[in-house]
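As the work plan foresaw, the team has encoded backbone shapes as discrete tokens. One protein thus recorded appears below exactly as we store it.

:::
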Amino acid sequence: MKKVLFAIAAVLFLITFLSSCLTSNYDSPDPTYEQEQAILKSYIDTLIANDRDVDTTDLGVYYVVLEEGVGETAKTGDTLTVGYSGYFVDGTLFDSSKNINNEGTYEFILGVPNFISGWNDALRIMNKGSKMQFVIPSDLAYGSRGQGTIPPYTTLVFVIKMVDIKPSN
């Protein structure tokens, strides 16, 4: 009987010890706006140091053209087909069009549904065949509230390929 109680106590101790070594996103506080701004600046500085030509949209989305496209740029109401991957600045993937269907694309009407303002702004400078990296500050994404797995005050990085643009009539 003593051996059984000892074994149970040892297992409980081991479980408690191992679980205390695990960390979760809930153990660390969400970043503050000031921390996000410092991380964003560092990320943009790194892009520039790596000879990336970083520009900004009128709203303040940073972007790097990876491949030039052709034709007219996307407009509200156009049906767009894109391939995309969304990352945190540390390189962690949080979303991808590869999760949507076998082709790895996502088709939608620009402005319906109304995505985060940084996404809508970014897509308006793309034309068919273009591929761009967008760095979207939290104030043009989910801001102080966050969304799902995206913590508050988190800059988002998207690599988007514009597969097709079907103009609205």
In short: The longest strand covers residues 156-166. The longest helix spans residues 2-21.
